[in-house]
Specification:
By secondary structure, this protein is α/β, with parallel strands linked by helices. The chain folds into 2 domains: 197 residues, Rossmann fold (3-Layer(aba) Sandwich), CATH 3.40.50; 186 residues, FAD/NAD(P)-binding domain (3-Layer(bba) Sandwich), CATH 3.50.50.60. Strands 6-14-7-8-10-9 form a 6-stranded parallel β-sheet. The chain has a 5-stranded parallel β-sheet with strand order 3-2-1-4-16, covered by helices on one side. Strands 11-12-13 form a 3-stranded antiparallel β-sheet, with no helix packed on it. Helix 9 links the parallel strand 9 and strand 10. Helix 7 packs parallel to helix 8 and helix 8 runs parallel beside helix 9. The protein is globular and about 65 Å long.
Length: 399
């Protein structure tokens, strides 16, 4: 990189985008950065996707907040790139554009009955738990028999939150509209298509299940399972955990979802074994945690980071990947005159009348949520678009 400091746009204020921001401020200290975010709130997956009882993971926002302390960084929230503002215009107006819009679309199971009441994607369900405004009106049908399809940590997150007691969740930021679900499930079955060795459960998350106050475990390991594999050993250890309550969590392997069945709502989930035989599990709720798909498509003029790039790592992995992408982008950047494109962008922003939200607007939301929470709960989230926008603009000033 040589010459004038670059002007940079980041699309997406989730962990990948904000790790990219932090890397830019280190690697190109003179850069000015505009961070565009579709929602009225920053932090993406950290705020709206990470399980509400994982407050340690959510603490990464403190690092992100420090990055917005400089006047060279601007948040442009409640602004949809690809809708309000064309991505191509950003590519023309900025020296570098980073696409960090994640993978917000759930991968469907592709089975009959998938749209029955009682069947939900993990994205929408976790979004509802966390107060994501797109999912605040979900109103899931929560019964005593839950089936979760998926072999990753998201499936474990869903099971853990459903099995926890109200007392266990009192220091979380679980939304008020979701607190009635705590401890309601009596049977939670986690079903993976492959064997236990092929799952992406982390031993750490499996061990966290063993600390639940009111759960008992049943792990149906195949006879040929490699018990020396860390994930299999962690699963086997779960089964030796003394029963502590009325919620039974069962792990099943080698079953492929075939059909969701019910008259007007979910009543049963049918699975197929490798030998072609069928097994039916009674269920009031089916949650699909089989992956996600990206939103905006990138281009040669845009650097994709995080899940938007096809990566599927965790939050720490996003940090390392963002640094690598930033360094490569800085090495290949060739500044060109962009005054005309920037003037067009300013015109689009000013003529839209949308009233995009800045960092000060977010801090009004932040303070309102914190001040309305009863300790030890860290915040009482605003969950509707209208409430978020109204609070963001409360006592709005030009400073």
């Amino acid at each position: 990189m040589s010459g004038a400091a670059p002007r940079v746009a980041i699309v997406g204020a989730g962990p990948a985008g904000l790790f990219t921001l932090c890397a830019l401020l280190r690697e190109a200290p003179g850069a000015s950065v505009d961070v565009f975010e579709r929602l009225p709130t920053p932090f993406g997956l950290v705020r709206s996707g990470v399980a509400p009882d994982h407050q340690g993971v959510k603490a990464v926002v403190r690092q992100f907040e420090r990055a917005f302390a400089t006047d060279r960084v601007r948040l442009v929230a409640d602004c949809e790139v690809g809708g309000d503002i064309p991505l191509s215009l950003l590519a023309d107006a900025y020296d570098m554009v980073f696409l960090a819009t994640g993978a917000p679309h759930a991968r469907r199971l592709g089975v009959a009955g998938e749209d029955l009441p009682g069947v939900y994607s993990a994205i929408s369900f976790m979004g509802w738990l966390n107060g994501h405004p797109d999912h605040a009106s979900l109103q899931p049908r929560i019964g005593e028999r839950v089936v979760i399809v998926g072999g990753g940590n998201v499936a474990l997150d869903v099971a853990r939150v459903l099995a926890k007691t109200p007392r266990e969740m009192e220091s979380s930021d679980l939304c008020a509209h979701a607190r009635h679900l705590c401890g309601r499930a009596r049977s939670i079955t986690i079903v993976a298509r492959g064997g236990p060795e092929a799952t992406r459960f982390s031993p750490t998350e499996l061990k966290a299940l063993s600390r639940l106050e009111a759960a008992a475990f049943q792990v149906e390991l195949p006879s040929g399972a490699d018990r020396s594999a860390p994930v299999v050993a962690a699963l086997a250890a779960l089964e030796t955990t003394p029963p502590a309550g009325a919620t039974r969590i069962c792990f099943r392997f080698g079953l492929t979802a075939g059909e969701a069945v019910g008259e007007g709502c979910l009543e049963q989930v049918r699975f197929q074994r490798a030998d072609g035989s069928v097994e039916a599990l009674d269920a009031d709720m089916l949650i699909s945690a089989i992956g996600q798909q990206a939103a905006l498509a990138g281009s040669e003029a845009v650097h994709a980071v995080g899940w938007a790039s096809g990566e599927r790592g965790d939050i720490p992995a996003s940090r390392a990947q963002a640094l690598g992408v930033v360094r490569q982008a800085l090495e290949t950047m060739r500044p060109v005159p962009r005054q005309a494109a920037r003037a067009r962008l300013d015109e689009v922003i000013s003529s839209s009348g949308a009233g995009y939200l800045d960092w000060a607007a977010w801090k009004r939301i932040d303070q309102a949520e914190i001040s309305s929470a009863a300790p030890p709960r860290p915040r009482e989230k605003l969950v509707s678009w209208a409430a978020l926008r109204a609070t963001a603009r409360l006592h709005e000033t030009n400073t």
